[in-house]
Amino acid sequence: VIRFNEAPVAGYEADVGSTTTIRTIGVRTSSLLRTDDARVPVADLRTARWVLMPHAEDVAWLRSLLGGAPVKWRVALDDDARAEGHPTEWGWATQLNVFGSSAATDATPDVRPDDFVVLSPEFYSYVRDAWTLDGGNPSSGLLGIVMALHLCDDVDVYGFNIGDPLAPHYYYDRRKRGCTSF
Questions:
Q1: Which Pfam families does the annotation name (predicted)?
Q2: Buried (b) or exposed (e) across 55-76, using 16+ Cβ within 10 A?
Q3: Which residues contact 31 (CB under 8 A, 6 or more apart)?
Q4: pLDDT (tens digit, 9 = 90+) per residue, 62-101?
Q5: What is the rounded distance in angstroms from the CA atom of residue 22 to the CA atom of residue 116?
Q6: Residues contacting 43, CB < 8 A, separation 6+
Q7: Could you tell me which residues come within 8 angstroms of residue 98 by beta carbon, excluding any fewer than 6 positions away?
Q8: pTM value?
Q9: Distance from C-alpha of 67 to C-alpha of 49, rounded to nearest angstrom
C-alpha cells in the first residue's frame, strides 16, 4: 500500500485500511517524519519505507538534511491558507533534521535512514517526459503511480480524478474545491 504525502489513516481505516508499505513525501510534508506529528501513525514511522520526491528547488534542503546541518525552507501558501489568515509572502522557517537532533524541536523520529530513499532524478525526468502531456512537472501522485507500475505486478488506484469537480481535493479535506488531474 502506497500512501501519498499527508494521507491520514486514523479515523479512515474502514475505507483506506491500516497498512502502509511505502509513504511518499516532499519537502512540504517532511514534518510527517516527526514522532509528534499525529497525521501518521507511529507504527508507520517504524515499518513503512519512505520515498522523498524532491523537485529542483528542494536540492538545497535535501543536502542539508542528509548532511545533518540545520535546514531552512520556504513555504508557499495557497489561497486556502491565505484565507485562514496565514501570511501571503514566502517566509523562512527552521525545519527538523529527521536523522538527528534539531534546535527546532525535541521530537525524535523513529524513521531509520535505511528506510528512507530519494526518488532518482532520472526517474523524475522519465515521468515528466513520457507521462505528462506538456512536459510539465509531474505531481507527486503521478510519480507515485508510475513508481507503483514499476514495482508491482498489479496496481489499483483509488482517489484520483473521481470525475466530480465539486468533490474535495483529498478524502480528508471537507472544503469543496475542484479535483485536479494530470
A1: Glyco_transf_29
A2: eeebeebeebbeeeeebebeee
A3: 37, 95, 96
A4: 666 566 555 444 444 444 544 454 433 333 333 333 444 4
A5: 10
A6: none
A7: 30, 33, 34, 65, 109, 111, 116
A8: 0.62
A9: 20
Q: What is the pLDDT of residues 9-63, one digit of tens each?
A: 778 888 888 887 888 877 666 666 665 666 666 667 677 787 877 765 566 666 6
Which has the closest alpha carbon to 113: 52, 27, 71? 52
Burial class of 32 by CB neighbour count within 10 A (0 to 12, 13 to 18, 19+): buried
Q: Cell for 165? A: 469537480
The span from the CA of 56 to the CA of 123, in Å, is 13
**How many Å apart are CA 92 and CA 74, to the nearest integer?**
5
Confidence (pLDDT) at 110: 60
Strand (E) or helix (H) holding 52: strand 49-52
Cell triple for residue 144?
A: 507515485
Report pLDDT digits (tens) over 148-168. Answer: 998 889 998 877 765 666 666
* Cα–Cα nearest to 151, from 14, 33, 60, 24: 24
The C-alpha cell at 57 is 528547488
Name residue, grid cell 472544503: 175
Instruction: Give the residue from 73, 43, 42 showing the smallest Cα distance to 55.
Output: 73
